Amino acid sequence: MRTSVAAVVTLALGLGLTACGSGTDSGKGGGKDDTLVVGATAVPAGEVLTYIRDHLAAKAGLKLEIKEFTDYVLPNTALQEGELDANLYQNQPYLDDFNKSKGTDLVPVVKPYLPPMGVYSHRVEDITKLADGATVAVPNDITNEGRALKLLAAGGVIKLKAGAGTDASPRDVTDNPRHLKFRELEAAQLPRSLDDVDAAVVNNNYAQDAGLSPTKDAILLESAKNNPYANLLAVKRGHEDDPRVKKLAGLLVSPEVRAFIKDKYHGSVLPATGG
């Protein structure tokens, strides 16, 4: 009996180690065979990737699996840990800050489109009509908060100190004639805050998820000119030359995808001018 039990335990351990080893060896983001597993937020990244998967990938010899996320942290941690092969949802300032603060080693491959950030309100139809003491909700992560404050400054409702960069915070506001109050919230919560605040600065993907049209509903929208916030395809360092990644990168800036973005989003998402 002892011998039989020992044999069963040994066999089970062997199978367990084999299974673990198999998972590690196939590793590539949890995909099957040569499938490229890409993490994305639903809009616009998920929609752009779905178009590529359904219309372009097979002809290019690419097997594509899309995993959607509802926040900005998990797609990067999953990529760093090897659960994904790539992700598409963030801009360069956010990626730089994430690598610095989290100790990750992620790099950009291509920048296919710009989703402009906008200011939305259920109470005013003009950014200049914000009342004295109005509350404006902004993202609570460093780079998106800085981006939001720069947008408000571009709209003329605040001024930032000279040299304020992508990590600008309310402490960098030097002129606030309307005495605006800033409420820092997780980016995904901002559309739901519109009933409770006077205005909210919302990232494009969360605005569209909530049924808001950047071109129709925003009371202030980013300009594409000299804008550093184009979304990028990212991979873990050392995987930039993965043939599957190169195929996806080429498709993301192809004429077909540029036309899809123009036709579907009507200016709410803008194709990038290059890689």
From the structure above, extract its key features:
single chain; six-stranded mixed beta sheet; five-stranded mixed beta sheet; 275 residues; alpha/beta; 38% helix
What can you tell me about this protein's structure?
- The chain is of the alpha/beta class and 275 residues long.
- The protein has helices at 2-26, 42-55, 57-60, 74-80, 92-102, 142-154, 204-209, 214-217, 243-252, 255-265, and strands spanning 36-41, 64-69, 86-91, 106-114, 118-120, 135-139, 159-160, 173-175, 181-185, 199-202, 220-221, 231-236, 270-271.
- The protein has ten helices and 13 strands.
- A six-stranded mixed β-sheet has the order 2-1-3-12-4-13, sandwiched between helices. The chain has a five-stranded mixed β-sheet with strand order 9-6-10-5-11. It has a two-stranded antiparallel sheet with strand order 7-8.
- The chain starts with a helix and ends with a strand.
- The relative contact order is 0.18.
- Figure out the total of helices: 10
Instruction: Note the beta-strand portion.
Output: 15-25%
Provide the low-confidence segments as ranges: 1-28
Q: What structural category characterises the helix and strand content?
A: alpha/beta
Shape: globular
- The whole-angstrom Rg is 22 Å
Q: What is the helix content?
A: 25-40%
Return the string of H and E elements.
HEHHEHEHEEEHEEEEHHEEHHE
Distance between the terminal alpha carbons, to the nearest Å? Answer: 66 Å
Strand order of the largest sheet: 2-1-3-12-4-13
The count of DSSP E runs of length 2 or more, i.e. the number of strands, is 13
Organism: Streptomyces lavenduligriseus
Signal peptide: 1-21
InterPro entries: Lipoprotein_NlpA (IPR004872)
Keywords: Lipoprotein, Membrane, Palmitate, Signal
